[in-house]
Amino acid sequence: MASAAPRPLLSVSNIEVIYDHVILVLKGVSLQVPEGGIVTLLGANGAGKSTTLKAISGLLRTERGEVTKGTIEFQGRAIHRQNPSEVVKHGIVQVMEGRHVFEHLTVEENLLTGAYTRRNGHSTKKDLEVVYHYFPRLVERRGFKAGYISGGEQQMVAIGRALMARPKMMLLDEPSMGLAPMLVKEIFDIVGRLHREEGVAVLLAEQNATMALQVAQHGYVMENGRIVLDGDAKTISENEDIKEFYLGLTGVGQRKSYRDVKHYRRRKRWLS
Amino acid sequence: MSDLLYMVLVAPFKDMAGAPAFLVEVLIGGVFAGLMYSLVALGFVLIYKASGVFNFAQGVMVLFAALTLVGLLERGAPVVVALALTVAVMVGLAYAIERVVLRPLVNQPQIILFMATIGLNFFLEGFGEMAWGANVKKLDIGIPDRSFIVRGVQINELELTAAVTAAVLVTLLALFFQTTRIGRALRAVADDHEAALSIGIPLKTIWVVVWSVAGVVAIVAGLMWGAKSGVQFSLSLIALKALPVLILGGFESVPGAIVGGLIIGVGEKLGEVYWGPLVGGAIENWFAYVLALAFLLVRPQGLFGEKIIERV
Ligand SMILES: Nc1ncnc2c1ncn2[C@@H]1O[C@H](COP(=O)(O)OP(=O)(O)O)[C@@H](O)[C@H]1O
Ligand SMILES: [Mg+2]
User: Fold this and answer.
1) Is the pLDDT of residue B281 over 70?
2) Is 70 exceeded by the pLDDT of residue A271?
3) Which has the minimum average pLDDT: A200-214, A216-230, B111-125, B184-198?
4) Beta partners for A173?
5) Which of A56, A118, B65, B148 is the most buried (most CB within 10 A)?
6) pLDDT tens digits, residue range B8-23?
7) What does each C-alpha distance from B108 to A64, B103, B176 come to in angstroms?
């Protein structure tokens, strides 16, 4: 019996996800995130990265998706039937694709909402300091409405807001989307520091494989709702197929227009 | 021709200037009516902002709250106790609505939820009358419906109390939204409900809170209006006046609901008194709709309709 390996922090086992009762999107996905690790989930547009993250965070149901097979365990506890606020209380926070800041709230109010699940006002102040320490740019923006700051700053607000919940693990969905390479680097560096200094585990969904593989320790490659490859970050970045099919594949212009369509669809469905 | 112009454009203002004390009285009456519209509209806005539901039953909630209050008073409860119990009933109602109506319909298109609130409307109407009876009732909360005179202006004690209460309520609500943790969460949900979920804000709790707040607002509206003109079915019809207020003020704006209500209340009273005789009266019945319609053409998002922040 090989039982020496420590229990992973997060363990997704063979999950199947169906949208609207008929659209099968994930077809048996398994992945693991070790305690305090950074793992990246790579794949082209439509591969199923966001769906995987939402299955973990419980946000899936708001889009009429459902985990119909398999299990998701966090610290040994099954979480795939829990709602998002329970999942956040267990210590998992998702930073959604496309940032999703509260546009009419100020930057500081945005951050404070992140502490909703924790009632202790005292430590909230300290956590705010921590967020401003990692994102010094936000200090001078604290009183601005979040709708009026730059895209990079919004991404920082979204990550900072998640941090306010004191998560054990963050699920980052394409934080590089729509940002200039310099900013992407800045944000990824901060994510790396958060991981090292605060011990936050990270599951990072990305199309920008080059960047993601630089911060991650381990990677999974997704295609069409399945994991087609996994290995440590170094091995994956040296894999010839990956180089050809994924590292080169970043049709930015095309990606953007597709996203716009998707966001539009999401806006129209209100109550969830 | 010039006669007509004179009658429409000049004479009413001459009348106003001729009897300023009377004008002030008319304005005060308008403000009173307007505050009632504002309160009902506020209930709509809160629920719409936090859940995207257009609550058709808001007017009946006013009636239901007033019926409950009167029913309790008639059974001998002291005013304070009756008020507290009515608040409890409205909060209980909010819980029930979340559990029975909203939760099962999560993720359904908006129109379905709207239909559900129509159902709720008829249910509350029937249930309220079954529980408390359908005859017109007098609501006496101990504030006399009499007037005193200040510098030649008649001021009605009841209307004054109502106006002050409404103003206090609105101020408290604004503070609640701006400064408390739940208030901030409510605004977050109104902005982006998916993001709110993602950081662990439970929508269910938020819905119970907004429906409860809408219920309390309904109590105040029902109380004031009912004390003025009796508690009866027509009370639920002030909701019809809230619709033009919403168009004027914007469906998502709290200040809009307040200012919109005041404009409509004052506008229709002025119209009725000074221009009414020209067309044989009854301007009050349609003025609000015409104003809203005209407004819709010029500024569809309303006076304070929330700006949609566009970024590239
Ligand atoms: N709410 C939804 N309803 C139906 N299909 C969806 C929904 N969301 C995503 N999909 C589909 O699931 C597949 C995977 O999407 P997604 O998880 O967003 O991929 P990725 O994040 O890798 O771009 C796509 O084919 C997409 O069209
Ligand atoms: Mg995605």
Assistant:
1) no
2) no
3) B111-125
4) A205
5) B65
6) 777 777 777 777 778 8
7) 10, 10, 30
What is the SS3 string spanning A11-32? EEEEEEEEECCCEEEEEEEEEE
Domains in chain A with CATH codes: 1-40+47-91+208-266 (3.40.50.300)
Is pLDDT of A23 > 90?
yes
Q: How far is B205 from chain A (nearest CA, A)?
A: 11
What is the model's pLDDT at position A246? 59
pLDDT of B234-279, one tens digit each? 777 777 778 888 888 777 777 788 888 888 888 888 888 887 777 7
**pLDDT value of position A251:** 40
- The closest CB to that of B200, out of A64, A148, A165, belongs to A165
Q: Which atom of ligand 1 is nearest to the CA of A207?
A: 22
- The reported pTM is 0.81
pLDDT reading at A272 higher than 50: no
A222 Cα: distance to centroid of ligand 2 (angstroms): 12
- Nearest protein Cα to ligand 1, atom 27: A46
Retrieve residue A36's tokens: 């305090």
Q: How far is A251 from chain B (nearest CA, A)?
A: 19
Which of A37-41, B119-123, B145-149 is the least confident region? Answer: B145-149
**Cα–Cα distance for residue pair A217/B137, rounded to 1 Å:** 74
The encoded tokens of residue A181 equal 């390479």
CA B211 to each of CA A236, A267, B162, B206, B208: distance values in angstroms, whole numbers, following the listed order:
52, 23, 22, 9, 5
Q: Which residues of A touch B194 (CB under 8 A)?
A: 59, 62, 96, 100, 266, 272
Q: Which of residues 7-36 of A touch B (CB under 8 A)?
A: none
Residue B84 pLDDT exceeds 80? yes
Instruction: Say yes or no: CB of residue A50 within 6 Å of ligand 1.
Output: yes
Closest alpha carbon to A9 in A34, A44, A46: A34
The two three-digit tokens of residue A178, written as one number: 């729509």
CB nearest B191 (choices: A105, A269, A272): A105
- Of the candidates A86, A92, A24, the residue with the CA atom closest to the CA atom of residue A56: A92
B240: closest CA of chain A, how far (Å): 25
- CB of B177 within 8 A of CB of B187? yes
Pick the more confident residue, A158 or B131.
Answer: A158
Q: Please return the burial class of B307, using the count of CB atoms within 10 Å of its CB with bins 0-12, 13-18 and 19+.
A: exposed
Going from the Cα of A255 to the center of ligand 1, the distance in angstroms, rounded, reads 14
Give me the phi and psi of A67, to 5 degrees please: -85, 110
Domain ranges (residues) in chain B: 53-231, 240-312
CA atoms within 13 A on the CB side of A57: 34
Asked if B231 and B136 touch (Cβ cutoff 8 Å), the reply is yes
C-alpha–C-alpha distance, residues B215 and B198, integer Å: 28
Tell whether the model's pLDDT for residue A250 goes beyond 60. Answer: no
Q: Return the closest-CA partner of residue A65 out of A80, A82, A51, A48.
A: A51
H-type helices in B75-149, by residue range? 79-97, 110-132
Q: Which of B107, B184, B199 lies at the smallest CB-CB distance from A88?
A: B199
B183 at A interface, C-beta within 8 A = no
